Amino acid sequence: MTEDRDFRNRQRTLIRARISAYLDGKLTLNELANDLEALAIAVTNFNSDWHARYQKAWAALEEVNAVMLDEHRREPDAEDRPILESSLHKLMELADELVGS
Predict the structure, then answer these.
(1) CB 54 within 8 A of CB 98
(2) CB 29 within 8 A of CB 65
(3) Model pTM?
(4) What's the pLDDT score for residue 87?
(5) Which helix (H) or strand (E) holds 39?
(6) Distance of CA 52 to the CA centre of its chain
């Protein structure tokens, strides 16, 4: 593996690990949103189409997070869950694209 591919593989692993930690109740949605934003920013040399699709999936997650924070809720409601599930699924797929999985 090249150095760049090694880096992207580490980012893929971190993205997937952070999503898993959230799903296991070890992270809040706010922590997850912040972490996923930082991880995407670190992958600066990957293609712009990937970044646009990642941003779109992340933005849906962040919107739910913002509403929950505004409403002082700790858990997503029935309306939020399908949005989060779709966003998290897409983010996992995008993480795999970093290494061509």
Answers:
(1) no
(2) yes
(3) 0.90
(4) 98
(5) helix 29-42
(6) 13
